[in-house]
Amino acid sequence: MSTPPLVLVHGLLDTPTVFNRLRQTLGGRAPDLLIPALPLRMGLTSVAAAADQLARQIEARYPGSTPLDLLGFSIGGVIARTWIQRLGGHRRTRRFVSLGSPQQGTLAAQLVPSPLLAGIADMKVGSRLLRQLDSSVLVISDPLH
Length: 145
Fold this sequence. Notes:
Blueprint: E1 6-9, H1 20-26, E2 33-34, H2 47-61, E3 68-73, H3 75-86, E4 93-99, H4 118-121, H5 128-135
Parallel strand pairs: 1-2, 1-3, 3-4
């Protein structure tokens, strides 16, 4: 069985270069990688809009139903989760790892004005987005384990 492609989703103040060391460490053992550049614009882009961009880049690179593994770092984990739960990514996701992601929100976002920085506002504790994601939690089991 071949290893499915790995999609790495960066954080708020990051670019795909945040994964350079991981890419080097994996070396020749690395699966096919997609590390999309999501223009999060310092939090101006909402998580839903970023998830739409992620969906377009995944579909452009891996059309159809190719199984995928995802690793989301920081807000990238919430973006990936949004793609999985709201945009049908659960049908293609084999494994999902969320690293340092504010899946329950972060106090650091509480004072941010929602209309100005939609992406950061999505990370508020109890935000509408996080409540919606929590109300429709999916369990993805790995059939190999």
